[in-house]
Design brief:
- The chain starts with 10 loop residues before the first helix and ends with a helix.
- It folds into three domains: 303 residues, no CATH class; 96 residues, no CATH class; 58 residues, Arc Repressor Mutant, subunit A (Orthogonal Bundle), CATH 1.10.10.410.
- It is elongated, with a radius of gyration of 30 Å.
- β12, α4 and β13 form a beta-alpha-beta unit.
- The protein is of the alpha+beta class.
- The protein binds adenosine-5'-diphosphate and magnesium ion.
- The site of adenosine-5'-diphosphate (ADP) has 16 residues, from β1, β10 and β11.
Length: 501
Amino acid sequence: MTAASYDLLDYDEVLEKYDPVMGLEVHVELSTNSKMFSTSSARFGDEPNSNVDPTSLGLPGALPVVNATGVEYAIKIGLALNCSIAESSRFARKNYFYPDQPKNYQISQYDEPIAFDGYLDVVLEDGTEWRVEIERAHMEEDTGKLTHLGGVDGRIHGATASLVDCNRAGVPLIEIVTKPIEGAGARAPEVAKAYVGALRELVAALGVSDARMDQGSMRCDANLSLRPIGQEKFGTRTETKNINSLRSVEQAIRFEMMRQAAVLEEGGEIVQETRHYQETDGTTSKGRPKETSEDYRYFNDPDLPPVIAPREWVEQIRATLPELPWLRRARIQQEWQLSDEEMRDLVNAGALDLIVSTVEAGASADEARAWWVSYLAGKANEQGVELGELPISPEQVARVIALVREGKLTTKMGRSAVDGVLAGEGGVDEVVASRGLEVVRDDGAIEAAVDEALAANPDIVEKYRAGNTKVTGAIVGAVMKATRGKADPKQVNQLIAKKLS
Ligand code: ADP
Ligand code: MG
């Protein structure tokens, strides 16, 4: 199958004529032990259909019971997003057929969500703060999972059979829906990415989800419409479904802006529809025409009583909230005395947590920052991986830093030790031993090497004595060579000065 080709309008031209409006719907799978309405395990990755029960299979007569931890986690998320928490909220049935949803309806919340009217302030790459308004965060259950066989890349298109796994059916989900995001203009894709990134960081910090976009425990649907600049009324939106990385969120928005603009420029109309994002080429393709909420025939689930959240309980939950990521960043910035820009560089490099752990393992903040943000970031860049993906731990970096600080390794040797760990040669001490990294402290040996080098370079000695003290580089080089790099250059320089003074 070849990728469909699209007419796209140049990005700058899109912005001359149109104003993008976005709406982001993020599904977060909660890391409760059991499912939202039954007791089977909510664990990811088990043998297919091993975590099922009459309720999650929708068998006749089975009755749902609400998972209190699921509700507590939903409230945590709502509070962290500055939402109001409903004293009483309700579950509704969202009716639709899907082969991995045996009940033929999904239990969700409709007009009475547990959390509503909040916001999340996100920071863009250049440090600008952007407030994303939250419309609601509601509880629902996940569907099962289909595996399509015989097609390309596991897609349904061209498949000859599909397998149903109900392990995920009934796993608690929170859906967080933004209000329309207006006015971002050229930065719309960046705002979308920053928002989903901030949300991911937030739910992970709250400990309510592992928020793994790659494993589907966090997924984003991105709505986008364009309206001619100056027009108030929103244009028609498309909804790109199940985007599973931050980079893809950014690209999906960008692509839809350029695609929709091309359609509008040709006098065409945007159809309200779902679209699928293609990781391979960064395009979106047509899904199904979008249902309206009437199509789902929502009604209150008669099997479930309203969810009551007494104020005292909400306040108890508020008291258990951990330090939120943006407050933690502000505190650390102050503790380490970093400028806004230094802090931003470090956050953008994905180095914050690594540096914190390195400091916890005994390094100073300055040392840890220097190693991660310069040397290791360079290595990550060379290898085209994220900093956190390098095969070296903060503890190992702290060990190298300690050896350099104690004078047992020169900085250069420290780098060699790091290289060895990255190359899979073992832990720091192992690499130090196998690569023979040690500063020679034996003054006798170094002194002998210095004497030898001075004797071999009478011209340099002469210049030095004539007052040009900057000429010692060749001598130091010769000593380093003679000691196979094990001398401490500082010590060598001191010795030279002593001998020639
Ligand atoms: P649906 O049931 O279609 O998923 P939701 O209300 O759950 O609808 O989510 C729609 C999302 O799109 C919300 O974030 C909303 O703010 C946003 N939105 C609504 N209208 C538009 C529009 N015309 N253009 C862009 N985004 C929109
Ligand atoms: Mg929705």
